[in-house]
What does this fold into?
Amino acid sequence: MKKLVILFFTSFAFLYSLEVQAQCEDTRMYGVVTPKGSPVITWVLCEDEPQIRQMKDEYYIGNWQNAILMGKFGSYYSTRTFNCHGYAWLISEGGPTRAMGWVDKEDDTENYDVGIYPEVYMTDGSYIQVSSYTHPAKVFWGNGCHSAITTEHQDTVISKWADGPLMKHYLSDCPWKNEYMYYGVEYYVKPSDIVINGPNVASYGGTEFTLSVSPVDMVVWSINSSDGYSISPDAADKRKVTLYKHGSPYDDVTLTATIADSIIITKNIHPCETIFDISNMAINANTSIITCYDIGIGNVDINATLTIESPGTIEIMNDVTIGSNGKLILETGGSGRVIFNDKFDLSTGSVEIR
It folds into this structure.
C-alpha cells in the first residue's frame, strides 16, 4: 500500500511539473527605456527543462574550451531567461533579467523583432560609436547577430551565448566567429564615460588635451571665452586640441568637445601664475598654487593642505616636511611629472599625486 501511495505522489508531482511548464509562456514586456528615454521591447522568457540545460552546458563547455564560464544560474551554466542583447545593453547596466532583440515565435509574426532592438540604444544618443576597442564599452556585431561588453583586456569580452552560458572570450572565439570575421564589430560608449584628458591648467607655450576615445563622428572643439585663450585643433587627429594662454587671464576657461553635433564633453581649466619655486616657508593654512611652468619645492614645512598644479615638472628638492595635519597634493593632469629628490620627511603626513 505504501509503494502505491509513493508511486501515486511521484506521478502526481511529475504531471504537476509538466502542467506548470506548459502554462509558462514567453511574455512581451514594455516599460524599459534607454538612458535617453526611448522605449525598448523586452521579453520574460520561460526557462528550459533541466535535461536541456545540462545538454547545452556539455555542448558549450566541450566545444569552446578556451572560453571562461562566468557563473551558474541555479544548477546550470546555461539559461534561456536572457540573451546576448539583453545582457549587454540592459542587465550589465543593472536592469532586469530580460531578453532583447528577437524572439522567434512561428505562430505570431508580431513577436519577431529582428533588427529593431537594441539598435535604438545606438541611434537615440544613449551611446556613441567609437573607432576602436575600449573599456567600458558595448560591442555590436556588424550584422546585428550578437552583443557583448568589453573588459580591461584587449579584444576580450563577456557575452551571453544565446540560451547557453554567460562567457568571457576573445572576440573571434565564440559561436559567432564567422559573422565577426565577415561583418566585423562596432564599439559604443556612454557619453558620460568620455572625458577630456589633460592638466587642469594651461601654459603659455600651449597645452595639449585629448579625448579618452576616438569617436567615429565629427568632433568640434571650442572654448567659452577668447579673452586670453585660443585653441588649435589637431588636423591629423580629431581627438586632440592645443590650448594656448595669452597675456594674464584671471578667469577659468571651459574647453568643449562637441561630438556628432549633440554630445558635449567639457573640461574646466584654470589660469596659471608665473611661479618657479616654493621655498623657505611654512604652510599653516590650506593653500592652492597654479603655475604655468615647472616648479620646485624646498625647505618647506607643510602643516595644512598644499595643492600644486602644473602642466610641467613638479620637483621636491630638499627638506620638505609634512606635519601630522599636513597634506601635499600634486596635480599634473597626466601631462607632467613629479620628481622626489634628497630629503623628504613623510613620517606623519601624506602625499597625493593626480
Notes: Residues 21-191 form one domain.
